[in-house]
């Protein structure tokens, strides 16, 4: 590898590692202490200096607090127990190019329902703790998660280097690159699949509990507004759809291609709980009431977009499971049987769907995801950029992911992918992009 490529690989891994953790801290601080005002944050950093200002904000919660550790610990133990103890049928994920087939237990729906039920009964019903407990300790929780996740990713790095799973471990020899992207594709610790826990059962499962706590805090302070109700309902709808079709997630790029490193694991352990609920966090101290007509319109568009996202994923999976011999929207599925050569030199075939949702855009599921996120942000109206940070980040992330996927598919399928792009010219937004 030449020097230029080596430097690029190092910076690609190093810059996010040093930039993203303080960004998460600043997001949590802005949302709690400054009520979502980036203007107040910039004034503070300008007065104190960027580095000293970040240090003043971060250091008091760098290691978290006793309360934060207790909340995180109890939640993590419950989720780890749910993975193993809740009943569920066996589900096999896609076989890797090295021949490994990950196995999961299908109990995500039950875990989602019980998590929300336990939290609501323990807080609203039994009064063991305040339902606003997560909001009250949110900044400390983010600090603890940040520290823990950075250390956990280091553990994953050393595990990948010195005690990897038998298959699918790849190292570049560049510490920053390997720490950022990860080494192992399906690492396990103590019998638990790492990515299943971090991505699904911690990051995504924490999201609904967090926003319920935010709504409870608004209710304590100002009374519950329909702006908060709309935002929370749409986010709960999104997460419920995720766990209703959790097995579909096991076939996404996150699980099939992205390795267990900072990018994926820190992102789901810290970035998801901090940034994804940010619209609801902003609404805690901005009790906005919407007219019932607008409320109904936002709910309809948001729920329809999120549902379309999941229906599109199921549509593609059904077509592939039936070998393309099925109907899509009442007509025979329009497909391309794309052949490719795997790592062992064997010719394989995959189905590229070019009708139904997938005839509208090559990644129509991202269209629904972006629209849904916009709908649960828009109840905050347009007084601040804070509630729109997530949907902006999401759009950038998905565009980047689409471009990564396009490059991979071009290399994998060659002329078949070129033909597919002619049939479906738009990537995400029909008529636009």
Structural features, described:
The chain has 433 residues and is mostly helical. Helices cover 65% and strands 7% of the residues. The protein is built from 19 helices and 8 strands. It has a two-stranded antiparallel sheet with strand order 1-2. The longest helix has 30 residues, at 3-32. The protein is globular and about 60 Å long. The chain starts with a helix and ends in a 10-residue tail after the last helix.
What's the helix and strand layout?
Layout (H helix, E strand, L loop, with lengths): L2 H30 L5 H11 L1 H9 L7 H20 L3 E4 L10 E4 L1 H18 L7 H4 L1 H25 L12 H7 L6 E2 L2 E2 H28 L4 H19 L1 H4 L3 H4 L5 H14 L2 H7 L7 H30 L5 E2 L2 E2 L2 E7 L5 E7 L3 H4 L3 H14 L11 H25 L1 H9 L10
Antiparallel strand pairs: 1-2, 3-4, 5-6, 7-8
Helix pairs in contact: 1-7, 1-8, 1-13, 2-3, 4-7, 4-9, 5-9, 7-8, 7-13, 9-10, 9-13, 9-14, 10-14, 10-15, 10-17, 15-17, 17-18, 18-19
Features:
mainly alpha; globular; 8 strands; 433 residues
* Poorly predicted runs of 5 or more residues: none
Q: Helices and strands, in N-to-C order? A: HHHHEEHHHHEEHHHHHHHEEEEHHHH
Q: Percent helix among the residues?
A: 55-70%
The shape, in one word, is: globular
Mean pLDDT: 94
Q: How much of the residues is beta strand, in percent?
A: 5-15%
Number of domains: 2
Strand order of the largest sheet: 1-2
How many angstroms does the end-to-end distance come to?
35 Å
Task: Give the gist of this structure.
The chain has 433 residues and is mainly alpha-helical. It has two domains: 63-282, no CATH class; 290-433, no CATH class. Helices cover 65% and strands 7% of the residues.
């Amino acid at each position: 590898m030449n020097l230029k490529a080596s430097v690029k690989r190092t910076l690609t891994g190093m810059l996010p590692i040093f930039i993203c953790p303080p960004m998460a801290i600043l997001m949590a601080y802005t949302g709690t202490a400054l009520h979502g005002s980036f203007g107040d944050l910039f004034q503070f950093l300008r007065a104190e200096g960027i580095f000293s200002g970040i240090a003043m904000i971060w250091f008091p919660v760098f290691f978290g607090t006793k309360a934060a550790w207790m909340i995180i610990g109890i939640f993590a133990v419950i989720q780890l127990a749910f993975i193993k103890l809740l009943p569920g049928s066996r589900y096999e994920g896609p076989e890797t190019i090295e021949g490994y087939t990950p196995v999961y237990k299908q109990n995500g729906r039950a875990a989602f329902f019980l998590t929300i039920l336990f939290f609501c009964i323990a807080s609203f019903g039994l009064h063991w703790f305040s339902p606003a407990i997560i909001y009250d300790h949110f900044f400390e929780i983010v600090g603890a998660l940040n520290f823990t996740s950075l250390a956990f990713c280091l553990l994953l790095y050393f595990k990948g280097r010195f005690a990897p799973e038998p298959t699918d471990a790849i190292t570049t020899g560049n510490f920053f690159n390997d720490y950022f992207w990860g080494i192992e594709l399906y690492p396990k610790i103590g019998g638990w699949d790492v990515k299943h826990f971090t991505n699904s059962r911690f990051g995504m499962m924490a999201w609904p509990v967090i926003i319920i706590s935010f709504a409870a805090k608004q209710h304590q302070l100002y009374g519950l507004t329909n702006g908060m109700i709309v935002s929370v309902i749409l986010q709960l709808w999104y997460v419920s759809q995720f766990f209703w079709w959790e097995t579909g997630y096991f076939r996404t790029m996150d699980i099939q291609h992205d390795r267990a490193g900072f990018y994926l694991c820190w992102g789901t352990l810290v970035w998801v709980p901090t940034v994804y609920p940010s619209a609801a966090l902003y609404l805690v101290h901005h009790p906005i009431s919407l007219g019932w007509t607008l409320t109904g319109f936002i709910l309809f568009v948001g729920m329809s977009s999120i549902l379309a996202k999941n229906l599109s994923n199921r549509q593609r999976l059904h077509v592939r499971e039936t070998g393309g011999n099925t109907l899509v929207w009442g007509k025979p599925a329009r497909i391309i049987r794309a052949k490719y050569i795997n790592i062992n030199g064997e010719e394989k075939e995959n189905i590229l769907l070019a009708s139904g949702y997938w005839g509208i855009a090559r990644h129509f599921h991202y269209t629904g995801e972006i629209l849904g996120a916009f709908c649960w942000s828009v109840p905050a109206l347009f007084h601040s950029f804070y509630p729109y940070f997530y949907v902006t980040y999401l759009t950038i992330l998905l565009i980047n992911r689409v471009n990564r996927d396009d490059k991979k598919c071009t290399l994998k399928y060659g002329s078949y992918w070129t033909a597919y792009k002619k049939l479906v010219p738009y990537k995400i937004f029909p008529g636009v992009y």
